[in-house]
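Hi team,

Below is the intake form for Cytochrome P450 monooxygenase from Ceratitis capitata. Please confirm the fields before the structure is written into the shared record.

FORM ID: S-0412
PROTEIN: Cytochrome P450 monooxygenase
ORGANISM: Ceratitis capitata
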Amino acid sequence: FETSSSTMSFALYELAPNQDMQTKARTEIETVLARHNGEFTYECMRDMQYLYQIFCETLRKYSIASVTMRKTLNDYQVPNTKFVIEKGIIIVIPVDAIHRDPEIYPEPERFDPTRFEPEAVAKRHPMTWL
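The structure came back. Fields below:
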């Protein structure tokens, strides 16, 4: 519950000063709902691409888990290197650092849902958004 309410609060916080984004999201919701006869279903929600982009950008900028950890179950040879991560090692993945890396997300402090347009996502490594 807390993670969902926090994400929605951050999304609304970012949308508050961005009238154009609000209008675009509202238009999409109205259009998609009309296409689904006013019924809000799972399929209807899946058709709301811009709203999805808003939530992805919100989670990029305001990660619910700023770091995550994993423990290796086996030795792991890092591809294209001589390095081996030995079994039992705990790996720390810095989610916030990845999400705020300006080489991956230019102007990382700027809220920009277009970062998650399908074409933009396809250009990035799949592990740059966790």
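SUMMARY LINE: The mean pLDDT is 95.

Thanks, M.
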